[in-house]
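Late entry, written up from scratch paper. The run itself happened at the end of the previous shift, but nothing got recorded in the book at the time, so transcribing now.
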Amino acid sequence: MATPTAFAAPPRRARNLAELVVGYVTEQIASNTWKPGDKLPTESQLMATLSVSRTVIREAISRLQAGKVIETRHGIGSFVLEPPREKLDIDMVPATTLRDVLAILELRISLETECAGLAAQRARPDDVAKISAALDAIEATGSNGLDSVDADLQFHICVARATGNRYFVDILTQMGSALIPRKRLDSAGIAHADPDAYLSLVNLEHRSILDAIARHDADGARAAMRMHLSNSRERLRRANEIADTHD
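Output as recorded:
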């Protein structure tokens, strides 16, 4: 009886291996192991992890670039991009009055309190570093007499990014500078405060939020964010009552 001929398994094709690498990278991103802005491992590290050749890694990188999953910066490396998605359709009425700003602060208290708590639970060292850098930018622009509103917004967005929940980021980004009262009104003037002292106080509140997130104190982060936004609302509410008595 003739012995059946044994056929060797066909070698794995580079195309299939590239798909394996693409799948690995997208899985890391989907699981929040790698977040937008994170740098991918080097080609050599990916080769060692996945046991594939440099040619395979480069083909996979090209596909990921074409799919706008990553971007490659020459001489630096490849970085995770924000996933493409449609923006939330929020029809925000511009905050042009003090009452509008108070209403926005009520919304922010409910939204950002939980945001800060989740950030404290999930923040990685690089998330904390980004929040700290945003706070430094607020202080630097303020001390130079420049408008710190955009830096203030970035601080809050950095906190949102640290949650790993893209919808917090979407909402805060789309609401934009309407979230920051000083953009619409002279909050320090309304609250009868010295602008430098007012900014210092606000930044102390920001610092408390950062410190709680850095030590992964979720309850402390929620409390610090709620206190910060509630204090802002209370300062403006009192000023609004004073203004009403003079109408």
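Confidence is low (pLDDT under 50) at residues 1-12.
(Scratch paper discarded after transcription.)
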